[in-house]
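Structure in, sequence out. Go:
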């Protein structure tokens, strides 16, 4: 993780020389530079908001708020996915992960307590998008093996996002010296990895084959 802020250097020397020779070109360049400077800084570096995190600790807290929102949104969405699934293994897997997700939310509240911060949820744009995509997939498929395959695909994208998030949170917690918090986050990380494996197994065991068969039947008909 890059936390050390390097001072940005402005290279003005060479630009000044070449523009001095061509007056018209120099004028055009100057206008362009001013316009660009208003939206982004040099080299496309994103300008930080006034509320930007000042150090790794703040980034850690912001990331916790983000995944707290994500888990809360997910726990509401999972039962809907289970209702739309038909394969028993898949339904059981989703229901099991709903229970786990409730526990994960409680674990995050524990982490907030450890670090002495109030548990606050801040909208996670990624989870919002992943859940919207899951909804889209359900709307674009008939209930049955094909929708099941779509639900697995959408769920695995969600699990992978969570795996990445908890991996990072774990590393942040360790770096900041929150060993107890790191252990709690690690428990969830392992749970997310197992959920991903369960989904892969559900897909391999029957669902994707059934979905392929459904395709064959459609072609014959
Ligand atoms: Fe989770
Ligand atoms: Fe997020
Ligand atoms: Fe996508
Ligand atoms: Zn999960």
């Amino acid at each position: 993780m890059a936390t050390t802020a390097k001072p940005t250097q402005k290279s003005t020397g060479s630009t000044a020389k070449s523009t001095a020779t061509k007056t018209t070109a120099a004028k055009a360049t100057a206008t362009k530079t001013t316009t660009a400077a208003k939206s982004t800084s040099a080299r496309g570096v994103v300008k930080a908001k006034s509320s930007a995190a000042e150090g790794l600790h703040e980034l850690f807290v912001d990331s916790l708020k983000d995944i707290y929102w994500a888990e809360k949104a997910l726990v509401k969405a999972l039962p809907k996915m289970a209702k739309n699934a038909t394969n028993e293994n898949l339904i059981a897997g989703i229901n099991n992960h709903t229970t786990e997700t409730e526990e994960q939310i409680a674990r995050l509240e524990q982490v907030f307590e450890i670090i002495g911060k109030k548990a606050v949820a801040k909208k996670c744009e990624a989870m919002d998008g992943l859940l919207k995509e899951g909804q889209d997939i359900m709307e674009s498929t008939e209930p049955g093996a094909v929708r099941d395959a779509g639900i697995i695909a959408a769920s695995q994208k969600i699990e992978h996002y969570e795996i990445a998030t908890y991996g990072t949170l774990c590393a942040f917690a360790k770096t900041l010296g929150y060993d107890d918090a790191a252990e709690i986050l690690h428990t969830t990380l392992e749970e997310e990895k197992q959920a991903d494996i369960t989904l892969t197994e559900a897909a391999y065991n029957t669902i994707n084959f059934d979905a392929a068969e459904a395709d064959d039947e459609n072609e014959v008909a």
